[in-house]
Design goal:
The protein is elongated, with a radius of gyration of 23 Å. It has 3 domains: 128 residues, N-utilizing Substance Protein B Homolog, Chain A (Orthogonal Bundle); 119 residues, Rossmann fold (3-Layer(aba) Sandwich); 68 residues. The protein is an alpha/beta fold and 347 residues long. Helix 1 crosses helix 3 and helix 4 packs across helix 5. The chain contains 18 helices and 7 strands.
């Protein structure tokens, strides 16, 4: 454990990194990479941790600062509060009193008004009651739940682009039809099978482009290719090998299970929740409630990983812990931070 003076300096540096990243609209790790000398490791961990968990941190803050929406807070006040929430939630080696007093000190130094320290202390004291020995601890995590598309696999779209070019269609025509309402919603909630969805896509395109062969379009859609993110799959395998329960919750068509078999990951996960099978789709909180019941775990023991912000917010609103996927390295950081069994070692 670092000396108190070192940690105090690290917190100050973390606030500065967060502020610079915020003004540049980048992740703090990009700020760190541009520096000639890498800051203290604890400062980097705090800054990157706040960024990785920002959506959930802000959700926590919003519950206790109702008169002051997080988005309307002074920038430095917001950075100090976010850092305080992270340290309380995941750095359990730091005593609660130390977290609060250090946050108040940061508020005194960087706050927007003389009232900032009191404001910071009042909010973080309530946060501490929640995340430390309260109803919403961030650790332990019993099940890590992965989204499929955008996390484990990434659609290449090459077949779709070739089809559009061959048939004189504007780029994006097929996707615009496929993801239009109500086709997309019906396919994601099982009102249409994958094959029916593909047929409807072909029919809709042929209505405005008579030269398009409906069957050829349907076949193309069902044959659309993807790339598996082997780094994320390796992380999932390491978690499974360590005895950590892992699952999938995906907005997907009725072909998901077949696709997972083709990818070689069908037996990797302890549970697969397919929106088209359960009839509920993200970001509906009812969908997350349903999956939590299927997993047999309270929501505060679940971690959800998704590439879409609206889905992450939906999970958080349902009481889950959730982070937005950035890359495999940041996912490893998140898993280590939350003490997940089998989390990869730092690079």
């Amino acid at each position: 454990m670092a000396l108190p003076s070192t940690r105090r300096e690290a917190r100050e540096r973390a606030v500065e990194l967060l502020y610079e990243a915020d003004t540049k609209s980048v992740h703090p790790i990009e700020v760190v990479r541009a520096l000639p000398i890498r800051p203290d490791a604890y400062a980097v961990e705090l800054a990157t941790g706040v960024a990785d968990h920002r959506l959930e941190i802000d959700h926590v803050l919003a519950r206790y600062s109702q008169r002051w929406p997080v988005s309307r807070m002074a920038a430095m006040d917001r950075m100090v509060l976010r850092l305080g929430v992270l340290e309380l939630a995941v750095h359990l080696d730091v005593p609660t009193g130390a977290c609060l007093s250090e946050a108040v000190e940061l508020g005194s130094r960087y706050g927007s008004t003389d009232d900032t320290p009191k404001f910071v202390n009042g909010i973080l004291a309530k946060v501490a009651d929640e995340v430390r020995d309260g109803p919403r601890p961030w650790r332990p995590i019993d099940v890590v739940v992965f989204d499929m598309d955008g996390v484990i696999r990434h659609w290449t779209g090459e077949a779709m682009r070739e089809f559009e070019e061959a048939h004189g269609l504007e780029p994006g025509t097929v996707g615009a039809v496929a993801f239009s309402a109500p086709l997309y919603e019906d396919s994601m909630t099982g009102r249409l099978t994958a094959e029916e969805w593909a047929a409807r896509i072909g029919e809709r395109i042929a209505e405005t482009h008579p030269g398009v062969d409906v069957d050829a379009c349907s076949t193309m859609w069902l044959a659309t290719e993807w790339r598996v993110d082997e780094e994320v799959v390796a992380i999932a395998r390491a978690l499974q090998a360590a005895g950590q329960r892992i699952a999938v919750f995906s907005n997907a068509s009725t072909r998901l299970e077949q696709d997972m078999s083709s990818m070689g990951v069908a037996d990797l996960f302890h549970h697969v929740a397919n929106s088209s099978r359960i009839g509920l789709a993200k970001p509906d909180t009812a969908a997350f409630d349903h999956v939590a019941d299927e997993l047999g775990e309270p929501p505060e023991r679940l971690l959800f990983v998704d590439d879409r912000e609206d889905n992450v917010v939906g999970a958080i609103e349902a009481g889950w812990h959730a982070v937005q996927m950035r890359d495999a390295d940041s996912l490893g950081d998140v898993l280590r931070r939350l003490g997940v069994h089998g989390a990869p070692d730092p690079a």
